[in-house]
Amino acid sequence: MTVPALKSGANALSKQTKTACCQLALPLDQKANPQAAKMLGEVPLFAGLKGKQIKSVASAFARERSYNAGEVIEKEGDSGVAFYLITNGSVEVRKGEKMVAKLGRGQFFGEMALIDKQPRSATVVSAESGTKALVMPVWNFRAAVQTDPTLAMGVMKELARRLRETTNALSE
Length: 172
Description:
- By secondary structure, this protein is α+β, with helices and mostly antiparallel strands.
- The chain has helices at 15-22, 34-42, 51-60, 138-147, 151-171, and strands spanning 63-67, 72-74, 82-88, 90-95, 98-104, 108-109, 123-126, 131-137.
- Helix 2 crosses helix 3 (51-60).
- The longest helix has 21 residues, at 151-171.
């Protein structure tokens, strides 16, 4: 696997993302981490996938990262190059100074990075010490989709659901 060149400036990767994506541990798969594969089956993005597909997605995660309370995981405006699945603790999703969501175990963020190369739409901060997340670099997800294009359907369905949810919330 090749790791993309790290850039500076507007398209720079955050320090946290560089650490998460460039210091790769052994890939996580169903044999090595049954908890991760089980959690993936419960995530709306991947819930419709079969065993072999779940194993493929699980192996696309580069590593599990730990965060301290108040640590910025991703910053609004930074390049989005990874998807995160929370395995322990919780995070706050902030738009400017306003908290728009609190996510916990089994929830995820960064799914838009799997589709486009746009900057992060919000800042994500660890809400407590010991928060952990599995990190999937976008290039690993793309490789998994090239192997099994049906993986992309789960992502598209969840993005559509979230878009509808946001549209409904804005119209209230």
